[in-house]
Structure formats: structure tokens, C-alpha cells
Design brief:
By secondary structure, this protein is an alpha/beta fold. The chain folds into two domains: 92 residues, Alpha-Beta Plaits, CATH 3.30.70; 296 residues, 3-Layer(aba) Sandwich (Aminopeptidase). Helices cover 29% and strands 18% of the residues. It is built from eleven helices and 14 strands. The strands form three sheets. An eight-stranded mixed β-sheet has the order 5-6-8-7-11-14-12-13, sandwiched between helices. The protein has a four-stranded antiparallel β-sheet with strand order 2-3-1-4, covered by helices on one side. A two-stranded antiparallel ribbon has the order 9-10. Strand 5 and strand 6 form a beta hairpin. Helix 3 runs parallel beside helix 4. The longest helix has 18 residues. It is globular and about 60 Å long. 53% of the residues are buried. The structure holds N-sulfamoyl-L-glutamic acid (3K0), calcium ion (2 copies) and zinc ion.
Length: 420
Amino acid sequence: MRKRRCLLAAVSAFALLAAGAAASPAIAAAPAPEAQSVQEVYEVFGTGSPQLRTKVAGTGVDVLTADDKSATVIATSAEAATLRSLGFTVESRGSFQRPVGPSAAAADFPAGDEGYHTYAETTAELQQAARDHAGLTALSSVGTSYEGRALNVLKISDNAGTDENEPEVLFTCNQHAREHLTTEMCLHIVQRFTDGYATNASIKNMVDSTEIYVVPNVNPDGSEYDISGGRYHMWRKNRQGQGTDPNRNWGYQWGCCGGSSGSPTSETYRGPSAFSAPETRAVSNWVNGRKIGGVQQIKAHIDFHTYSELVLWPYGYTYNDTAPGMTAAEQKRFADLGRQMAGTNNYTPQQSSDLYITDGSVNDWMWFNHKILSYTFEMYPRGSNPGFYPPDEVIGRETTRNDRAVDLLVGAAIGAPVGV
Ligand code: 3K0
Ligand code: CA
Ligand code: CA
Ligand code: ZN
């Protein structure tokens, strides 16, 4: 399944350059031509509550990670000044590091990171899996992106060509363009449940008793743009106009609560209307279509992101634990399973709004509209180095790390007692 590894020494591309860190040769790379010289990495102190973190995000800066101690953001000097005027202590962490050299092939990831899959390579992997495991898989698409790329979905089940009456499970990846490790996570899930079927009884049992759907690229235009020219662009949104943040564009409590921006230049631009992004519209329409005879077939879902090593559950739009559509018992179920999954991968479990308020996110929509047990996983790393661009050497370790959590989610969909 895996691409042949490039033998060139891998460069830990694009790690954030912490202040005072010893310079490695990679850091000497010239800034990319389009880099906004006014944009820098800052550490923002005084973020000891979700409310304070929401205040940071509300200034429109690009929040890379945030906890009770500080938030790491990309901001202009004007935004840094705004944060200071709001009472935060703000320290510059300098620029970010870019890869030394472009990829050998313009269409590939930067040199040293070729182990990651481009959109074309991801599609080829899905086609290969479908060929290798006919009967166990069915490859189709849920629609097309703004630029016309197929939003591939691979179904994995016994008798995959037939819509059987089995609980369905959904895994989605790469809503955010630069979060490339998530695409690898979805490909790993595909590989594990297909290649493992013949030899692993537990995998066979899961595959036989469910219908597993995997969408490795929800935002393929964005992820292709992010690696265009063989270097990284730190791009988050889709490629419609100035870009819409897909995870602020879903149709439940869209734009309600200060957890997104109405400004097209913002990294959390919610779009002009809910589901204005073709990608979220396509995925949501497809999920709506899994409601058959009035019963939603999909029972559980993980949307993979990077980074911070978190397991998040709804709601994101409110700080309250319970709200319309979320009873105390339902909240407890989310928290119990969330904590249990986090116990297997050593992520931190919390309600989404414990990080900061998000409105128009995928989890809130999936749960409120369909009662799908919908989580967000924020994958490796925990902190801002290496941020969104870990070297491809970590792919195996950091995707395998979620195997047991994935199995717990599948188990929850089947209705098996959690923890088995
Ligand atoms: O539900 C959530 O809290 C999503 C968190 C997610 C987001 O959309 O803001 N974090 S990320 O953008 O750094 N992957
Ligand atoms: Ca089946
Ligand atoms: Ca079915
Ligand atoms: Zn994300």
C-alpha cells in the first residue's frame, strides 16, 4: 500500500522555528516568494480558559494550537497588537521554516516528504484497494470539489456491492488542506480493513458486521494547492474565491456564536451561506442520503484533523454540556467513549468548545441532524513543532496509534459494549 520511500535524507519540513532553537540547515532556506513578510508565528499567553481562547480566535488569527498555558498563532503585527490590547502577552516566535528544496517531481510533496500521498496517489491507492479486494470494497464519489476533483469514498464491507442492513461507520479526512497526515490516516484505515481481512479475525468481524465508508480527501483542491510547486503553502481552506473554511461551513448553528468569521480573508471564513462550499454540500448531501426509510444508517464518525492530540466531541458552538439535541445521557455517552478512545492513543479528551468555540463544524451538524456519534481527532503532534508538516517517517507510527480508537468507534456503531 505504501509508497516507496525516497532514500534522500528526509528534512523535517516546515517545522515552526522556536525562538532560540539551534538553526538547522533547513532553516536557512529562503522564504517562499508568496510568504507574507508581515505574518509571523506568535505565542500568546493568558489563554487559561475556553472563553479566552475563543477571544484569541475571534481576532481572526490562524490558531495552530491552544491550551491553558498559551496559544500558537500565525498573525500579522497588527493582529499581534490587537491581541496585546486585549490584555494578552504576545511573544514573537519568528518565521516558519520551509523545506530546503522543492520536490523532484513538481506534482509531489516536497523533497523528503514523498511518503505522503498526493490526491492522484491517494486515488490510485483507492483504485488499487478496490481491484485487490473486489467484493469487499466499492469505490465511488460523494460529489466533486470546487475545482472538479472527485470526492472519493471507499466502502468496505462483506458484499460491498449490496446495501446490507448493517450499521454504517464513516471516516473523513483532510477537511483542512495542510493537515496531510489525516489523509494518511484514512488510507491506513483502508489498508488495515482490506489487507487485514483475510488474516485477522477481529478485523473480519468488524468488516462483516458493518459498512465502513472512508473519504480520504474532503478538501482535495486545498491539499493540492498546499503542495503546489513542490513546497508547502500553509493553506487551510478550500479554493473557492479566497477560500472557505470547510469546518465552519456546515449547516447547524452556522455562524451563530462567534466561532467563525464573516470575512473572506479570515482563516475561519464560514462562507456566504451554510454549505456554500461544494465539498461540505456534497458530503452532507451524501450523509442525508444514508437516511433510509427514515433511519440514518451511519451510527458513528470520526473527522480527522491535525494537530494537538485531542479527541473532541460536540457541541462546539456552546460552552454548555447539554443543549437542544444533546441530553445529559447523550453527552455522557460522547464523553465516556471519547475518554475511552483517548485512553488508547494518549490524546486529551474534551468537548470541542473546551478548545475554543467553533460554529458550523461537522460534528455539531452530524450529531444534531443525524444523531451520528461524531468526533474530531486532532492527530500528532501535540505541540507546534513539527506542526502541520511532520516528516513522513512518522506516518506509520501516528496512524497505527489510532487503531484501537478506530476499533472502539466501530464497536460503538455495532452496539457492542464499549471497551470490548
Ligand atoms: O470541533 C473542533 O473544535 C474543530 C477543531 C479544529 C477547527 O476546525 O478549528 N481545529 S484545527 O482547525 O486546528 N484542525
Ligand atoms: Ca456487508
Ligand atoms: Ca446499509
Ligand atoms: Zn483541522
